[in-house]
């Protein structure tokens, strides 16, 4: 019905297997990964084949279907080797299914490929990238199989397993005549809309009758007239396997669009179909079916992803949970005492007593990890040292081979009798190897797995209930008759009834995979090391250089990076038979000066991975002291730098010539810069430095004489930097006398001057040639001449830069050069009437009010010594305003009214005002110096504080006066206090900055509007700053002075009533917590919670505080912070996430930082997992808010497109055409004719 509507959703597909960010030489040649701990194989997604993978896994885990397909041999189906022969009748689809099922059973790979199978379907790459409906695929695949198996013993395979019949009957009420019609089915389609579950749907389909009466009579053939009748349907024949397709996708004929029904739809794990069958006299077991597969669709009707929950009937997989796998399997209660599990001696003896006594040391570490769930390095290395060293120290118990690669237990252990050892080891191993809950093969404990393409994870039976409803919900249900019993030999036996030729093929493929993995493992763990032999090098000019050639001095060695440094040293000893004395291995690197030795490698017990040796590393082999009798400086501090040193040449008369000599020199990084004089045999002079990237005379910097004792590294010099030595008595620089140091002329060497004098001119703008040293006066005079303007403008005009928005900026003084005026070549200037301000004058922009529109600013030139009061008078006079209730504010960097100019007698120069600044004329007189004028607001959050409500309105605490800020509220959204903030303006308080917060509260209580509230004392008020019309910063200390809060002149305060007095310290954080109401998308009223952050701002600390506050187990709560601007909830890391993140840095767990930025007043949603176990924190109000935001953004986008259309006269769809949805395509499988 829906064709290819379901585009694949890749949000759940990991890109780890693409090796993103990894650098492996043979990544493309790596064999497929082996199976994971479940021992089950997934199926790789070809791009859009998740629906196919889910159905194939269901068929594979239907043993009767799988074995029936296996029973068809090559004599009936043909052979894949003959598929290209023209006359051969090869039934490719069944053969490829057989091969795929054999791979899923036996091939040791994480995921199988369906490429060969889809090729047999006749699908192209486009078809494999297009997703279809799995219900449609189920019918088409069965039809293709039936066609492919015609003429074989499996011709009735589909009918035998899945075919059933339905009988529809109409019974005449008059003559009792029964008219019936029989229908065949392979799957039953059941309704989801307005139905509570599967049994409810079956009841309405096969139990309830449809009555024909009144205007809807039935024509009876026997009575030959319209009569009353009853229509019903029953299941006549039940197949061994029953498939239900759920009608999740429907069409809304009102909106004319498809939609997915995500309502709750229950289905039982075991169902009795007896009430729905025509014959009901048989035993109940004949009608009982067990659920064994659920195909799940995640997403909407236009996109999504399929995966499947499957019951492992034959117990082929390892049903073990990840948490069980990661936790130690050792049960401490079963041991005689807790010291045994902490005793590495007992653990290692127990592991070695398993199976073969002699095992490689590396495998011993792996077995230890499997048995106790933690590696040797993590649990024992700190106290016992490396594993090999521990085995060596206990040679009376463990026997190491000569090369220390294998280990075994000594037969005659002197610590205790052999029988005691064997008995204790067996008891310990029983604990170590005991299966976790769920691994026991009990009939009452079914094994369910979630198979999601390549990934296979165990799940519990109760997890199926999560797929009853939501965007990720059940789409197809598969049941099998309870009477179907599997033979004992099939249990946990993947080779059961697999044909011999497929067994041989899979065995050969597994051997080939093992060989490939061994080769790949060797390739990936081997790397190249370049050995530089000390005797073949000599030290001169600050670095190491080969005596003969690089080829003879360096040896390439391929080595396993899993081996230790001691193993590497031993291998080099064996290679260098001539070596005598100590051998030191050091990391070396090539620098421009030569080879330099950095760190010395130590710790022979460490692997090369642990000491971070990289592929292609250069290793210097020496005695650690000298090379060729010369002591070698080592380390990054003394890294040699190759510098270009320039100094004047001298004649034979020792007179300096006007020519520079450029010679390379090598200096250690930690040497003083003054050592250049000694290296160049120059007694004294001036040193100038130039970085490696800089070019030209202007990039040279002189080194002060007091800095000559600084090192080259401290001065920032690097390889390739240049140093110039110049005679201190020579005033003329030699830089410009050498042609190679003069930079080329800039490509742009002009300025554009526009005529803005409103005079008639032949030219509107001209280009004036200039350099950075050109004086602005010269440019202005040239512009006046070339624009052919009146000579009078030469005395009464100025140049003003024009920004990218066309705004005229502050005039440029005539005596400035272009460099001093910070003008770039190619920029535009406006020639304007009026003189530029002098050096003692300021050019200011000003406007009235804080809402400044572009182009409405006025301009004024004043002396920089004028006072703020006089400047205000001049601006008021120019604006045509009067009165003394005005003040000035400086516009800040974000074009808003900033701090007020409070000191009216101060000069503009003293307040650091400069030309080009913008001042705003704001109505209202400023308070005296040292006083604040604070607007006071009343803040009443929704909550249980009803007794502090207004006397005028005891039933409703919201206000409708003009002085109220309130967010838009949504009806029928219970208890969503986080979305509503009400602030009522009470009045202004003028108070000294030296007053305390308590005095501010007292003064606020004297406001006339405050008389409506019954507050006992200021201690029952909580003070907040107002930011973005919401409570912002909490002012917590009652006796702290307002000056210490640094409130500023524009701060506004809101007061919140309290039920009791509070005393918050600096480490306390006040949070609004709301408990989620079970079964509703709503929250209870907010409750204040005080969190002590003295132990850190960690999620764990917060979770403990919330759990203690609500008297809930800490692992049974979930917390999320509300983001009111986005109508979203940001979950705080859960208990399990905290455990997995312990090894990360602390700052990543700080809730003060990103992305939480937790602060006072934030709203937290609390979810009790004991009554509600989902990850949805949102409410109905949030949905409405997000929809409004989307609608607003869409409207804004449309308005912008409309403006663009008006300005460019181009259709709106021309620039950003909407991407059309792909056409619906039918699903088909191409099958040859075998009749």
Automatic annotation (TrEMBL):
GO cellular component terms, semicolon-separated: cytosol; nucleus
Enzyme Commission code: 3.4.19.12
Top-level lineage group: Eukaryota
Compositionally biased region (Acidic residues): 1-10
Database matches in InterPro entries: Papain-like_cys_pep_sf, Peptidase_C19, Peptidase_C19_UCH, UBL_USP40, USP, USP_CS
GO terms for MF: cysteine-type deubiquitinase activity
Region (Disordered): 1-29, 1191-1235
SUPFAM superfamilies associated with the record: Cysteine proteinases
Keyword field contains Amino-acid biosynthesis: no
Domain USP as annotated: residue spans: 41-482
Biological process per Gene Ontology, one example term: proteolysis
Gene3D superfamilies per UniProt: Cysteine proteinases
Substrates-to-products reaction catalysed: Thiol-dependent hydrolysis of ester, thioester, amide, peptide and isopeptide bonds formed by the C-terminal Gly of ubiquitin (a 76-residue protein attached to proteins as an intracellular targeting signal)
Record family assignment: Belongs to the peptidase C19 family.
Name of the protein this chain belongs to: Ubiquitin carboxyl-terminal hydrolase 40
Taxonomic source organism: Lipotes vexillifer
UniProt gene name: USP40
